[in-house]
Specification:
The complex is a heterodimer.
Chain A (H helix, E strand, L loop, with lengths): L29 H11 L9 H12 L4 H11 L3 H8 L13 E6 L2 H5 L2 H12 L12 E6 L11 E3 L2 E3 L7 H11 L2
Parallel strand pairs in A: 1-2
Antiparallel strand pairs in A: 1-3, 3-4
Helix pairs in contact in A: 2-3, 3-4
Chain B lengths: L26 H6 L4 H8 L2 H11 L11 H6 L10 E6 L9 H7 L1 H14 L4 E6 L4 H16 L15 E6 L9 H8 L23 E5 H13 L1 H4 L10 E8 L5 E6 L4 H8 L9 E5 L8 E2 L9 H6 L10 E4 L4 H15 L5 H18 L6 H13 L7 H15 L1 H10 L6
Parallel strand pairs in B: 1-2, 1-4, 2-3, 5-9
Antiparallel strand pairs in B: 5-6, 7-8, 7-9
Helix pairs in contact in B: 2-6, 2-9, 3-6, 5-6, 5-7, 6-9, 13-14, 13-16, 14-15, 15-16
Classes of the chains: A alpha+beta, B alpha/beta.
């Protein structure tokens, strides 16, 4: 974690990862301070750092808690209510913890035409969950996603920060097995 | 992520030439391919000279609206007393579109070079690349390219020793379609909800942080280095007078060879669908096409002989949009397809305007009801009425965007709606 991140991209790090530490301090650490300062240095207002810092909280903790929002509000001189109003607008900041493998199945039009609904159902079946629910072992959360921008490679599935393309229902078990193989 | 299909015909490739070559992602690989030569040339020019070349080239915005790029740059104030900004709109989220992500993941330096040249032309010293949050693998490639370019002196203080400084910051979105609308993007970039605002004021007068701003799409910016290096006449050898150049086509849905293809503007749509993409799979017939991404009007299989220029697609009753044909073959339930599209717009409405917030939701609910076999004939009139209510009455065009496919599907495939309502049966084969 101690690698230095260039300030130009400090606010644009992938923020849905399998590796996360819900207990890690957001800003009360050298890394947290470095990230905060790097992000702030790129904008003329503090408020503009809001999305990058919500992303940072999601990256570190796997979700954005009320406590995270309060501490971001304090650093940016915003009210917690304002931070919540913004965070709640964007679907990618998780408002509650998810499974270690956060599985988003695109069911938008091009994927819909290529059988995305059956892919979604297969993921739910294999993980024994309902949409948005986390499996009992804490491994999987499956949700239906809007267009992932991979329409020529339908069905598109995003698992944490990786894309899986041309997914068919038959490939689902293999994809899930691969995740556990990679995990710790 | 592999590059799936190549067009095996002889075509012009200005943007996609190096797609599929991982070495082109690195700075060294890019320099070997003639990268950053156009930037060097632009640094020798006055800002207005660059704008003039782009104006003469006739390049039009590739984000969907097709506004002339050089003219947009020309709206920026000339005085240097104040910060100017360039926003690169990389929030590609139109269902059907997947071209900007291909540019960024294969040739990130092409876009960075375009950003720098555009920034120079509009006298901006800071570029924000607003990239959609979901594109994590693409973001990694882009971030690495930006850092490499910084370290080699292409970005930052005194670019290539020219005395002109320009920063680039990558800014990650977080899952809001409306952040792709230029004022929505600017609201989001400033740390707000991605709510569009009324124009005027136009971005060139008052954009992000109250300063003059230009917002350009990724593909637009990626087209700029070639134009600056080779001149406007070179670019005009392709396409039509009003729609010069080439375009990346994102072909999806029921196709033998879906994917990304770069073609000269003006090629008949039928040629793209049948000759380039091989038509529908398993010998099935094409039933309908949404040619420019989900927010454009349906065309029937008999209407595909249109010329794929901005003006040609408009004459055909649809739009070029993001050049993202979504092809539906005869096995498609068009009602179900339209319901899925409507559901998306209902989900993505930012909620500021009543017509859009309520109307998109109503449309989705009515279509769902018909699909479930509980529709009534008067639903068709209600849907037409909603089309009226949602057109031209809102801050941005999200509401209009659902009307284009909806109204055209009602006009052209009314039998599908009637069959579902009266017989609870689909006309799909």
């Amino acid at each position: 974690m101690s690698r230095r991140i260039h300030p130009s991209v400090a606010g644009a790090q992938p923020f849905q990862l399998a590796e996360r530490d819900p207990e890690a301090p957001l800003f009360e650490s050298a890394e947290g301070q470095e990230r905060l300062q790097a992000v702030l240095s790129r904008y003329p207002t503090k408020r503009a750092a809001l999305l990058p810092l919500l992303g940072y909280a999601n990256e570190l903790h796997g979700w954005v808690s009320t406590q995270d929002m309060e501490s971001i509000a304090e650093r940016l001189e915003l009210t917690p209510a304002y931070v919540w109003s913004v965070a709640s607008f964007y679907t990618m900041y998780n408002k509650h913890p998810t499974g270690r493998h956060f599985i988003q199945v695109c069911t938008n039009i091009s994927c819909h035409l290529n059988g995305a609904q059956r892919v979604l159902e297969r993921f739910l079946e294999e993980t024994g969950t309902r949409p948005g629910e986390t499996s009992e072992d804490g491994r999987h959360t499956v949700i239906e996603a809007e267009c992932l921008g991979a329409c020529g490679f339908a069905t598109a599935v995003q698992i944490n920060d990786e894309y899986h393309e041309n997914v068919t229902p038959g490939r689902v078990p293999q994809i899930l097995a691969g995740l556990d193989g990679n995990g710790s | 992520m592999a590059y799936p299909y190549r067009d095996d015909r002889e075509t012009t490739t200005l943007l996609s030439r190096y797609m599929g070559e991982p070495e082109a992602r690195t700075l060294d690989g890019w320099l070997e391919r003639g990268g950053y030569e156009a930037l060097g040339m632009a640094l020798e020019m006055k800002p207005d000279e660059i704008t003039e070349i782009v104006k003469e080239s006739g390049l039009r915005g590739r984000g969907g609206a097709g506004f002339p790029t050089g003219m947009k740059w020309g709206f920026m104030p000339k005085e240097n007393g104040r910060e100017h900004y360039l926003c690169c709109n990389a929030d590609e989220s139109e269902p059907g579109a997947f071209k900007d992500r291909e540019i960024m993941r294969w040739t990130p330096h092409l876009m960075i070079e375009g950003c720098l040249i555009a920034a120079r032309a509009i006298r901006a010293e800071h570029v924000y690349i607003y990239i959609r949050g979901e594109f994590f693998p693409v973001v990694r490639v882009l971030n690495q390219a930006v850092v490499e370019a910084y370290e080699a002196g292409y970005i930052g203080r005194s670019v290539l020793g020219s005395g002109w400084s320009c920063d680039i910051t990558v800014h990650l979105g977080a899952g809001a379609y409306i952040a792709g609308e230029e004022t929505g993007l600017m609201s989001s970039l400033m740390g707000g909800r991605a709510e569009p605002w009324m124009k005027p004021p136009f971005p060139a007068a008052r954009g992000i942080f109250g300063a003059p701003t230009t917002v350009n799409n990724v593909e637009t910016l990626a087209s700029v280095p070639g134009i600056v290096a080779n001149g406007s006449a070179w670019y005009r050898q392709w396409g039509s007078d009003k729609s010069p150049g080439t375009k990346l086509w994102c072909c999806s849905g029921h196709l033998v060879k879906p994917g990304n293809y770069e073609l000269e503007l003006g090629v008949p749509l039928s040629e793209i669908i049948y000759d380039v993409c091989g038509g529908a799979p398993d010998g099935r017939r094409v039933r309908a096409v949404i040619p420019g991404g989900s927010s454009t009007a349906f065309l029937t299989a008999d209407e595909l002989d249109c010329e794929t220029t901005y003006e040609g697609m408009q004459a055909a009753g649809s739009a070029l949009g993001t050049a993202s044909p979504i092809v539906m073959d005869e096995s498609t339930c068009l009602l179900s397809a339209m319901r899925r599209i409507a559901q998306f717009y209902a989900h993505e409405s930012c909620g500021q305007c009543v017509q859009c917030r309520e109307g998109t939701e109503w449309i989705a609910k009515i279509l769902r009801r018909i699909e479930d076999g509980d529709g009534a004939m008067k639903d068709i009139d209600t849907l037409y009425d909603l089309c009226e209510q949602l057109t031209g009455r809102t801050i941005c065009v999200l509401a209009d965007s659902v009307v284009f496919p909806l109204r055209s599907s009602l006009d052209k495939f009314r039998d599908e709606y009637e069959s579902h309502i009266q017989q609870d049966a689909c006309t799909a084969k």
